[in-house]
Design goal:
The structure holds 2 protein chains of 2 kinds.
Chain A: H1 2-29, H2 35-39, H3 46-55, H4 62-74, H5 88-123, H6 128-140, H7 145-159, H8 182-188, H9 192-228, H10 232-239, H11 244-281, H12 287-296, H13 300-328
Chain B: H1 6-9, H2 18-26, H3 29-46, H4 48-51, H5 89-125, H6 127-141, H7 145-156, H8 160-187, H9 190-198, H10 202-239, H11 250-259, H12 266-293, H13 295-298
Helix pairs in contact in B: 3-5, 3-12, 5-6, 5-8, 5-10, 6-8, 7-8, 7-10, 8-10, 9-10, 10-11, 10-12, 11-12
Classes of the chains: A mainly alpha, B mainly alpha.
């Protein structure tokens, strides 16, 4: 049953998240740097330091600290960020939309780009065109988002300077938003000039995240499509006189898309992980960029909140993939 | 076959001789070109002081941000230009191969060792051991790798050791997952069942029977991991968490080049090109090795 699968996966997810929470908590408590020492002025007295530690709950024994933090997490309270002096939940809520828009845009571009190249490659199979696609793709498969991001900087910010290098939106346009989903909101409210500005800011980070995934999609989808093109039902459709494009798009694609869908889901978690460094390169104000600052500043509560949030996103993506695959393939539903 | 001998084809797993494997590898252009490039990098790293035209640390503010030769205002002797402190970009890239290759070989090797052992145990013993190791892998996979590596290096302190430990701690799962699946498959094979029936010890079956059949996959995976390790080191250097700034690294150069990209694009472009070529070479080599060593793909 689908329901059993969901319950099963959710239970597993809780165990995994608990493991993540414990590991991060323990890791952070063996950090040599004292976060309180970093945030206090040099002339502070010992009493001041103790008071501050007590304020952030850093003076209690470790198991007590963990218990306080865990009960907080369960009720949605991740504590207060040491460097930003704001509730971690509020910080995460204000930064997450930027990353979600970026990651989903990148997924969309990757599927569109990878899908079209795979289909084109299938149409020109066993020609020089396919050899060219395979050759270029085998190199592109090796290139990670970090290298793409910097190559795009050289291309579109230096050689042909047509795209803004940093940020999410021109600060002068960032007024009058009721949500933090700037792109979605500006499109829904018909402010297309603003949306255009946001898209020009998102173009480079989106492409950097999308290209590695697109390369993976090209390889797997093209392989599945080519296999599907040899099946009897395609032969039958061919005998009926359907054109090649229609054979690929209507007959083969439907049957070939399964494995690619499953892999794309797994790869999407890598894409989300990639936002950490890509957002850094473009000074994009999402949770990835925030995470690097939090680690460098040893902001314990913020790091814990961020890692759990990333863990939760990863797990939700995986459950989503499992469910989609199970829905599409009835044989797995009882697994 | 003209010289058919019953002994060489009655067993399921014919062990090809080492020279024949090497000969087959040398016929694969991918392996030769990519492998040749890696060898070239190793030579650069080892002989860096002899090859580099300038002292990679020598600063000269009078010749700062000089472009590569062939562009206006370039400085003779500085082929690929200078960085913001007037240091020679070419010499720094050459010395940068040292950190990159050390991380590639040591970190990938250790990750391979630990991950493969755990994968072998999980795949062979199954049940409780498998459940435990697989759950551990799941927990690990729930961390974004870049975030985990930054977190680890922040905890361990900066430096080459920390970078290597971080990569091992993160990437053992890649080996563990693949080796576990491979081992499970091999453990079902007739030759393992036969070895069990004859009464071989579990250790003998695991290390003398199963392991050699997993090695081809492992070698290809190891090569791919080396490329990944080089990128992770560059990312950590970029964020400022790798070796100290007096040691030239590609990631450190890229970070500086990113800051002054509008004044001196070559400070970013040159190390980025080196990183790109290295990653692609490791990847192509891994691909070629996988094809040549895998008995199934070869057919």
């Amino acid at each position: 049953m689908l329901l059993t699968l969901v319950v099963n996966r959710l239970a597993m997810a809780l165990i995994t998240l608990a493991g993540v929470a414990i590991i991060v908590f323990v890791l952070l408590r063996v950090v040599p740097g004292d976060p309180v020492a970093m945030m206090i002025s040099p002339g502070a007295s010992a009493a001041d330091i103790a008071a501050l530690k007590a304020h952030y709950g850093l003076d209690a024994p470790l198991p007590t600290q963990f218990w306080i933090w865990l009960t907080g997490v369960v009720t949605g309270d991740f504590g207060t960020s040491i460097t930003l002096h704001l509730h971690v939940t509020d910080v995460l809520a204000s930064r997450l939309p930027a990353t979600l828009e970026l990651a989903i845009a990148a997924l969309f571009v990757a599927v569109l780009l990878g899908g079209s190249v795979a289909i084109a490659g299938t149409l020109v199979r066993r020609t020089a065109g396919e050899t060219a696609i395979d050759g270029i793709n085998s190199i592109l498969l090796a290139v990670p988002d970090f290298i793409w991001a910097l190559a795009l900087v050289l291309l579109f910010a230096v050689a042909i300077p047509i795209l803004p290098l940093t940020g999410r939106i021109d600060p002068e346009l960032a007024e009058g938003f009721t949500t933090k989903f700037y792109l979605v909101e500006s499109i829904l409210t018909g402010r297309f000039a603003v949306a255009g500005d946001i898209i020009s800011h998102m173009a480079m980070p989106t492409l950097a995240l999308a290209l590695p995934l697109a390369a993976v999609i090209v390889r797997l989808l093209k392989q599945s499509l080519k296999e599907a093109m040899l099946q009897d039902y395609v032969l039958l459709a061919r005998i009926k006189g359907f054109r090649e494009v229609r054979l690929v798009l209507q007959e083969a694609l439907r049957n070939a898309v399964g494995p690619t869908l499953a892999l794309t889901g797994v790869q999407f978690t890598f894409l989300v992980g990639g936002t950490v460094i890509v957002e850094r390169i473009f000074a994009y104000p999402g949770i990835g960029n925030l995470a690097i600052d939090a680690v460098i500043n040893r902001d314990f509560p913020l790091i814990q909140g961020l890692v759990l949030l990333f863990g939760l996103i990863f797990i939700l993506i995986n459950i989503g993939v499992d469910l989609t695959v199970a829905t599409l393939n009835p044989r797995l539903r009882h697994g | 076959m003209e010289h058919w001998t019953p002994t060489s084809s009655t067993t399921a797993d014919v062990e090809p001789s080492v020279p024949s494997v090497v000969a087959r590898l040398l016929r694969d252009p991918k392996v030769v070109v990519a492998g040749g490039f890696i060898v070239f990098l190793v030579v650069l790293a080892v002989a860096a002081p002899l090859i580099a035209p300038q002292d990679p640390l020598a600063q000269n503010l009078l010749t700062a941000t000089a472009p590569p030769l062939g562009f206006a205002d370039s400085e003779p002797g500085y082929w690929l230009g200078t960085d913001g402190l007037g240091r020679d970009v070419l010499s720094r890239v050459i010395f940068g191969t040292r950190v990159s290759l050390t991380v590639a070989f040591v970190a990938a090797g250790l990750a391979c060792l630990i991950g493969s052992l755990l994968g072998l145990f999980a795949g062979f013993f199954g049940e409780f051991v498998d459940g435990l190791i697989s759950r551990l892998v799941d927990i690990w996979m729930a961390f974004p790798p870049v975030l985990l590596s930054i977190l680890l290096v922040a905890v361990l302190g900066t430096g080459l050791h920390s970078v290597i430990i971080a990569i091992v701690v993160i990437d053992w799962t890649r080996f563990c997952r693949v080796v576990r699946t491979e081992t499970m498959g091999q453990a079902q094979m007739d030759y393992v069942v036969a070895a069990r029936t004859i009464g071989f010890s579990r250790r003998a079956i695991l290390f003398r029977e199963i392991l050699p059949n997993v090695v081809p996959v492992l070698i290809a995976l190891l090569t791919l991991e080396m490329g990944i390790a080089v990128v992770v080191e560059a990312i950590l250097s970029f964020v400022g968490l790798s070796v100290s700034s007096d040691t030239p690294t590609w990631g450190g150069m890229i970070a500086e080049g990113r800051q002054i990209v509008h004044e001196a694009w070559w400070v970013l472009a040159v190390p980025l090109a080196a990183l790109f070529a290295t990653v692609v070479a490791f990847n192509q080599l891994g691909d070629g090795l996988a094809r040549s060593l895998d008995p199934v793909l070869r057919r």
